[in-house]
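Project outcomes to date are best conveyed with an example. Our students and postdoctoral researchers have been running inverse folding experiments weekly, and each run begins with a structure described purely in tokens. The record below, which covers 340 residues, was selected by the lab manager from last quarter's runs and is presented without edits.
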């Protein structure tokens, strides 16, 4: 296959560009003294409005082991008529048909993730999301049971931290999470015991845990665009290995995140279609993000987080700050704060 000019133009950034971008980001953090307080601005990880970000991802499916599921990740340009932003479309078809290979006992999965971020001046490039509480995703879902996957530079390289991607269109398969494994025909009791020996984790059940932030359904479709933003707490992810929940559970190594992706392992035959606009780390919806959130998500937009708005300070402290002169930034401010 000969690469087209469009593919070549969308190729991921090279070594020097990656190094320059990371040095610029770290310099801004140091200059603005962001390491001394909880960040109020988002840390964008994958912005699929950039076609090169889509080109920098890879898809996976059970075809690698002889299965029949398919997976594609395509760049979709912005559509002003529907106010839809440029984004990535993850689509294909799930098939649970087994290949003629006696070693393969289970198929029916598809996924995508970003490729390794490559090297920069100081070695392997990772995302450092330690100062943030949530992983945010802006998506338009068909309701299937997708899973968000995070891989870090852990000792066990095949470990993946997972959390269900809950949306307003999420299809609940049973009345409760306890009934799910016994009622879903695609899973046998033996397989359920192997997958979840200690019971199905709350983060992987069909019922969203209270810690997941998502828009509240109004029961109407007026003013909705289909897009919605979901915030998943990092401490809610479950450690798995080769699809199995493993013990002991450990927290995500947020300082060294290698890849982020989305998979579909519900083993329900048929097509799937998930649109993804952006993935970022955050401590809550900020006022700077609110305009974009309302423009894209419409009536399903998340409100501004009051903690982010006030910088997690008391109302008295905020009022004093509002009356004070504009705060200094940079190294001088850092020195002044240290000397207080």
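After processing, the design step wrote out the following sequence:
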């Amino acid at each position: 296959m000969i690469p087209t000019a469009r593919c070549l133009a969308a190729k991921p950034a090279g070594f020097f560009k990656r190094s320059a971008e990371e040095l610029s980001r770290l310099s801004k953090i140091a200059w603005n003294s962001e390491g001394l307080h909880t960040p109020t601005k988002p840390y964008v990880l994958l912005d699929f409005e950039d076609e090169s970000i889509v080109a920098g991802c890879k898809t996976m499916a059970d075809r690698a082991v002889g299965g029949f599921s398919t997976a594609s990740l395509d760049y979709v340009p912005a559509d002003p008529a529907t106010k839809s932003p440029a984004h990535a479309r993850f689509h294909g078809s799930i098939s649970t048909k087994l290949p003629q290979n006696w070693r393969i006992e289970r198929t029916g999965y598809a996924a995508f993730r970003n490729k390794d971020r490559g090297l920069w001046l100081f070695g392997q490039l990772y995302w450092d999301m330690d100062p943030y509480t949530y992983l945010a995703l802006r998506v338009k879902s068909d309701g299937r049971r997708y899973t968000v996957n995070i891989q870090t530079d852990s000792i066990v390289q095949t470990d993946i931290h997972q959390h269900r991607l809950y949306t307003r269109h999420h299809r609940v398969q049973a009345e409760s999470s306890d009934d799910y494994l016994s009622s879903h025909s695609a899973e046998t009791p033996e397989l359920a015991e192997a997958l979840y020996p200690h019971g199905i984790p709350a983060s992987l059940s069909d019922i969203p845990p209270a810690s997941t932030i998502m828009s509240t359904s109004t029961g109407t479709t007026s003013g909705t665009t289909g897009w919605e933003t979901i915030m998943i707490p990092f401490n809610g992810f479950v450690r798995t290995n080769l699809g199995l929940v493993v013990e002991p559970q450990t927290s995500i190594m947020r300082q060294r995140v290698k890849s982020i992706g989305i998979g579909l392992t519900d083993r329900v035959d048929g097509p799937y279609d998930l649109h993804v606009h952006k993935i970022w780390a955050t401590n809550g919806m900020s006022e700077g993000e609110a305009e974009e959130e309302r423009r894209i998500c419409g009536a399903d937009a998340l409100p501004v987080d009051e903690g982010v708005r006030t910088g997690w300070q008391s109302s008295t402290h905020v009022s004093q700050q509002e009356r004070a002169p504009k705060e200094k930034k940079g190294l001088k401010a850092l020195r002044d704060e240290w000397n207080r």
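The chain has a mean pLDDT of 79. DSSP finds nine helices and 15 strands in the chain. The training component of this project remains on track.
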